[in-house]
Amino acid sequence: MPNQTRVPLRLAICDDEALDRAQIAQMAQEILRAEEIRAEIFCFDSAGALLREIRMGQSFPILLLDVMMEGMDGMELAAALRAGQEEAAIIFISSNREMALQGYEVAAARYLAKPLDAAKLREALLHCCAAYMQPREIVLPTASGQSRIHVSAIVYVEPWDRGVRLHLAHKNVEVRLPISQVTAMLPERQFAYYHRTLLVNLAHVRYVRYCELELKNGERLPISKYRLAQFKSEFMKYLKA
What we know:
Blueprint: E1 9-14, H1 18-34, E2 39-44, H2 47-55, E3 62-66, H3 74-83, E4 89-94, E5 110-113, H4 118-133, E6 137-142, E7 145-150, E8 154-160, E9 163-168, E10 172-175, H5 179-185, E11 191-195, E12 198-201, E13 205-209, E14 212-215, E15 220-222, H6 228-240
Parallel strand pairs: 1-2, 1-3, 3-4, 4-5
Antiparallel strand pairs: 6-7, 8-9, 8-12, 9-10, 11-12, 13-14, 14-15
Helix pairs in contact: 1-4
């Protein structure tokens, strides 16, 4: 999976144990080098230090976080980042397996146990790299002309009299294309129909209840009872991916 971009992929490793931090960095570097993925790895000895860097504008598309750390732990760091709309892929690494389920609450990509298995780390890193290298924008015809839309900003899509309306994080955009054509431009496993002509970004879904979705922004959407079983299946596949 060679990285075709000129800018190296930036990874952050956060672990308060120096030996673990060095081991994770070395393993990650060897995996990425073998896959011909250009990357820069940055190490942090506390969650607070990494959080400050991100809030100051530093970007790390992939984060490898220890869960159990002094002060702010990895879960608290992830929650703070998600609250700030940070979309980085998160890989938790911990000796505490009992906290794995909490990773779903912050949309973690993987939860790996210590001692770290190289094959599992490789799978997790390649999964996150593949997602990062997917197109992040699509170009759609709108009233103002050809507009670039960030895929991650799309919350859900509904029919509009001349095409579809995209509900974005902070605004709505009308697009003069059928929903089937818009769907074909989007990452297949990230979006799912919750009605015959209504599409939602699974990254924005918090809960699935009977006949209702709750989004992370607090909005609730009715789900067709005929779509419920299939939607739940697609949502679980997305969470486990």
